[in-house]
Amino acid sequence: MNETSTDRSRASRRRDGVPLSAARQQRILALVARGEVIAVGDLALQFGVSQETIRRDIRALEEAGGLRRVHGGAAPPATVDLTARRPVVERLNVERDAKLRAAEAALPLFADGMNVFLGGSSTMLLLAEALAARRPALSVTTNMVDIATVLAASGRCKVTLLGGLMNAATRTLIGPQTLEALDRQVFDLALCGASAIDPLHGVLGPSEWHAAIGRAVGKRSQRLAFVADASKFARTDAHVVQPLSAIDSLAIDRRPSPEIEQKIVAAGIALLLPAASDGA
Q: For residue 53, what are the contacts with CB-CB under 8 A and spacing of at least 6?
């Protein structure tokens, strides 16, 4: 279908000083960030423009590094961690050994009597299993059903499971009720997972919800730590969960490149490595 002059005019018209093409492209990036291939035809129908207009948008966004052109549509850039969008039961076996080492690196952060928050992710579930084996006496709040079950069964932890809407894929509770419950608590320590770690932007996640709960937990914790395998330094994602300046500790499975480590240390972050790591 050929693009008409009316279509071109509509595509370039401004609203509140912002080009509609720029606003449309931001929406396309948000859709692609969900981890799926989006068809050109579907985007054209959604935005009420021609397919050629959408193809131009996709070309521009690819040149800017925001997505990849694929046959008939657009996909996330290759570095986006699509694993973070898969069910947690599938993610448990992706880089499992590295996640276990990162969880081991985080264990020295815990001491008997602490009040802690554990975020929901495959890495955090492995950390909960390591804590259950170590059996420290903790008060634990979490929004992940599996973490609550594992730590409650240890017999040494007082466990609070936050309320909210159940996300079957991640086995976590989400939504306004979850954030409201967090507003009534204060933690000695909070630990969360990450789908990507960027030396400039900080810890990244796949959705606005990850950013929202990350902000809420950060405000309510005396110390904030993230646990992730080092492959996350080679990835990116759509939403900032926390900037580097807000993070106290980072537990990872192996030492990152000298350039990345320098930026982490410069941000005042304590880098935690498992005991067997070289230079730990």
A: 3, 7, 8, 11, 44, 47
Q: Which two tokens stand for residue 222?
A: 């005396």
- pLDDT, tens digit (0-9, with 9 covering 90-100), for 242-272: 999 999 999 999 999 999 999 999 999 999 9
Residue type for position 146: D
Token look-up 């008997």 returns 112
pTM value is 0.71
- Judged by DSSP in three states, 19 sits in strand
The residues, ordered by sequence, that sit 6+ positions from 211 with a Cβ below 8 Å of its Cβ are 205, 239, 240, 241
Calculate the alpha carbon distances from 25 to 9, 61, 130, 238, 256 in Å: 16, 7, 44, 14, 34
Q: For the chain, which domains are there? A: 5-75 (1.10.10.10), 82-272 (3.40.50.1360)
The per-residue pLDDT for range 165-218, each reduced to its tens digit, is 999 888 999 999 999 999 999 999 999 999 899 988 899 988 889 999 999 999
Classify each residue of 195-218 as buried b or exposed e, where b means 16 or more C-beta atoms within 10 Å of its C-beta.
Answer: bbbbbebbbbbbbebbbbbbbbbb
